[in-house]
Design brief:
The protein is about 70% helix and about 0% strand. The chain has helices spanning about 5-15, 20-25, 30-35, 45-55, 60-75, 80-90, 95-105, 110-125.
Length: about 140
Amino acid sequence: MIDDTILILLISYFSRLSFQRAKAFKAPLDFWMAASERTSGDKSRAFQEIGAYRKLAGDLKGAEAPLRKAMELNPNLAPAMDNLSWVLWDLGKKEEAMQIASRCIEKCPQYGMGWQAYGSFLDGLNGGRAESSREA
């Protein structure tokens, strides 16, 4: 069994790579997903990091499931809500993206990235362009 602290530190390290370097590390994601299943305790942060890392690597469809799992395990995990809202927006699921962004600012009003996503989505729905090019 992998210690939770070590797993989270490793995932955090890998999730902070540049976009170009993250692409090179795309293959180990299946390992991290399997490892997160074998840890004890709160796994929401691990799933959030896996989803953010997949998003960073450009795997939007692959990012959706771990981000949803993170939210299932911890409904108040703001980074998971924020990242999932952007993934959904980029996948064309705009209504659900708005709902998740709205939930993020409702549950975690101090989390500025949630407000940024919500405002950007509103702009996108009103004929503007939601900027989703930022990293996870």
